Amino acid sequence: MHPKEPGKPQEPEERKPTGKAARPTDVTTETLLADRSMGAVPVEWDADMAVTALYSAHFRSLVRLAVLLVRDIATAEEVVQDAFVAIHGAWRRLRDPDKALAYLRQSVVNRSRSVLRHRAVVEKYAPKGLPDAPSAENGAIGELERSAVIEALRALPTRQREALVLRYYGDLSEAEIAHAMGISKGAVKSHTARGMAALRSVLEKMS
């Protein structure tokens, strides 16, 4: 190191590269949003990119779940779209972004419950009229609607129906179902067991 010369400005010291690239945002760590078997893709930790990737990978499967809960495809699509809008707005406040898909499922279940509560009130006080003509969209799922199992599911209490739909149609684990429904794993087992017993009973009566 050379001695300082009086009156001569010092050259700034050359900094060695650290090997770390500068980050354009606060958090840009690449992550996997869900199981690759579920169609997940790695995305940067950015709300637009992450939610777009989730939408592409899981929108259809979430709509299928919602259809079984709210019983019509148009409402199911609206429920799922609202869930995606909500998670986009709350993205930076998520405690664990790696569990975004689990949060989406929980949102879909909760919004489906709200739809059913609202529908029950409307049907209770609405004047009786002629039934609506079937839409083209509802016709597209006509085969599903005519299924004896689907009809039997509709007759079950809400929590039992949710547990069975998430378990056997969503193929979720007990822990995932518990998170989606906001209950304990023990309660999931109870609702599933009671739901299966009730489902068998309903199917026997329909046969």
UniProtKB/TrEMBL annotation:
Pfam families, per database record: Sigma70_r2, Sigma70_r4_2
Keyword Transcription recorded: yes
UniProt keyword annotations, A-Z: DNA-binding, Sigma factor, Transcription, Transcription regulation
Domain RNA polymerase sigma-70 region: residue ranges: 54-119
Signal peptide: none
GO BP, sorted A to Z: DNA-templated transcription initiation
Regions of compositional bias (Basic and acidic residues) in chain numbering: 1-17
InterPro entries associated with the record: RNA_pol_sigma-70-like, RNA_pol_sigma-70_dom, RNA_pol_sigma-E_actinobac, RNA_pol_sigma70_r2, RNA_pol_sigma70_r4_t2, RNA_pol_sigma_r2, RNA_pol_sigma_r3/r4-like, WH-like_DNA-bd_sf
One GO MF term attached to the UniProt entry: sigma factor activity
Similarity field: Belongs to the sigma-70 factor family. ECF subfamily.
Protein's UniProt name: RNA polymerase sigma-70 factor, sigma-E family
Organism, as annotated: Nonomuraea wenchangensis
Lineage: Bacteria, Bacillati, Actinomycetota, Actinomycetes, Streptosporangiales
